[in-house]
Amino acid sequence: MVFVRRWWPVVVLPAISLVIQNALFESRYDVAGHAAEHLSSASAPFFGFAVVLVLLYVTPPARRQVPVVVARGAWLGATVLVLIGNVRVVDALLRAGQGRTPTDALTEDGAVESAHDLANVAPFLGVAAALLLVGVLFLYRHIGVRLAIGAGALSVLFPPWIIPGAGVLVVTVARCASYQRAATSTSATPI
């Protein structure tokens, strides 16, 4: 029971984000092909909010540190830009009658091409913001140097159109492990 009380947010927050994503966002569109790829990429902020909330749950001092809050907001803002950019592309494809067109058969007009601008730039803003967040977490000693380097490298090397700033996910998992170790060592110590 103690385990459930301690870890319920780690399960509930991603589940809630998936429900909201499916109910309020993905169910709105009936697309395939290139538009479906953009719709899939647009889901970044839903999971991003859950990841950041879990990260703050397992790192309580970070809730009060302004640079961490600003860096977290920058990363979430970048994921929202990913959503906006990709939804613009989906809407432009639907208006052009290409909501089910495969990528290789796509004929871009001016509206579809200009809609791609933000969708192409925003994932790289997410990577930059993820590097900022990892750096700030390192500076405030919430993570070690090896984790910071690994998370930074993963953020840069992992395709940003799949997960913009994948290193934030790695940092969150590592912080969850540290949180569990701290709880285990505290409960094992005699009073």
What's the short version?
The protein is mainly alpha-helical and 191 residues long. Helices cover 75% and strands 0% of the residues. It has one domain (2-186).
Along the chain, the helix and strand elements come as HHHHHHH
Distance between the termini: 21 Å
Which structural category fits the helices and strands?
A: mainly alpha
Rg computed from alpha carbons, rounded to a whole number of angstroms: 19 Å
Averaged pLDDT:
91
Query: How many separate domains make up the residues?
Result: 1
How large a portion of the residues is in β-strands, by DSSP E? under 5%
**Uncertain segments:** none
Approximately how much helix is present in the residues? over 70%
The global form is: elongated
Number of DSSP helices? 7
Number of strands: 0
Secondary structure blueprint with pairings:
Blueprint: H1 2-25, H2 33-41, H3 44-58, H4 66-95, H5 110-139, H6 145-157, H7 167-188
Helix pairs in contact: 1-3, 2-4, 3-4, 3-7, 4-5, 5-6, 6-7
Polypeptide structure, described:
The chain contains 7 helices and no strands. The mean pLDDT is 91. The protein has one domain. It has helices at residues 2-25, 33-41, 44-58, 66-95, 110-139, 145-157, 167-188. The protein is 75% helix and 0% strand.
Which tags fit this structure?
single chain; 191 residues; mainly alpha; 7 helices; 75% helix; elongated
